[in-house]
Amino acid sequence: MARAFIGIGSNIEPESNVRAAIRNLARQTHLVGVSTVYCTDALDRPEQSSYFNCVAEIETDALPAQVKHAILRPIEDELGRKRTQDKYAPRTIDLDLIVYGDLVMDDGDIRLPDPDIFERPFLAIPLFELAPDLVLAGARVDAIAAAMASDGLKPLQDYSRQLNDEVSRRRG
């Protein structure tokens, strides 16, 4: 079983879409945990609604391409994700495989670890919450997260607690 981490984001009905994505992940994988969910401003788009962002940890026997194309993409499709040329367009759900064990790869379709972890607090800080000792391409996630400004992240404590309670009940 590989330990993998999924970045989750939504700014169209985010409360319901993030919850639905996590439920779907739990049905299709062994969902280990979910970080705090943070409310963040849309990148480079102040006119857009805020995002809910978090990271989920899963254990899976599926290979990275299978995770992306047989698990994550179908969940996005089911939740109404519309892909456009505008990579910053609003979205019902965005699911990205950001870490897969200690695998380092760039095949054009999948880049692991996701380079955005090194630039975006809404990925690095939740990843640190779930795996504080993780090392990514020689860099410790605790150091990556500590170097980032977190003032743009508003933790949604009650919502996060509800999600984690639901995950715990499903495992229990």
Structure description:
The protein has 172 residues and is an alpha+beta fold. It has a single domain, classed as 2-Layer Sandwich (Alpha-Beta Plaits). It has five helices and ten strands, in the order βαβββαβββαββαβα. The strands form three sheets. Strands 1, 2, 3, 4, 5 and 10 form a six-stranded antiparallel beta sheet that branches. A hairpin with a 4-residue loop joins β6 and β7. α1 packs across α2 and α1 runs parallel beside α5. The longest helix is centred in the N-terminal third of the chain and has 15 residues. The two termini are 20 Å apart.
Give descriptors for this structure.
single chain, 5 helices, alpha+beta, Alpha-Beta Plaits, 172 residues, 6-stranded antiparallel sheet
Task: Tell me the span between the first and last alpha carbons.
Answer: 20 Å
Mean of all residue-level pLDDT scores: 94
Number of strands: 10
Largest β sheet strand count, sense and barrel closure: 6 strands, antiparallel
What is the ordering of alpha helices and beta strands? EHEEEHEEEHEEHEH
Strand fraction equals 25-35%
Residue stretches low in confidence (pLDDT < 50, at least 5 long) are: none
CATH hierarchy: architecture:
2-Layer Sandwich
Helix and strand composition category = alpha+beta
User: What's the Cα radius of gyration?
Assistant: 15 Å
Given the C-alpha coordinates, what overall shape results? Answer: globular
* CATH topology group: Alpha-Beta Plaits
CATH level-four homologous superfamily name: 7,8-Dihydro-6-hydroxymethylpterin-pyrophosphokinase HPPK
**Which percent bin holds the helix content?**
25-40%
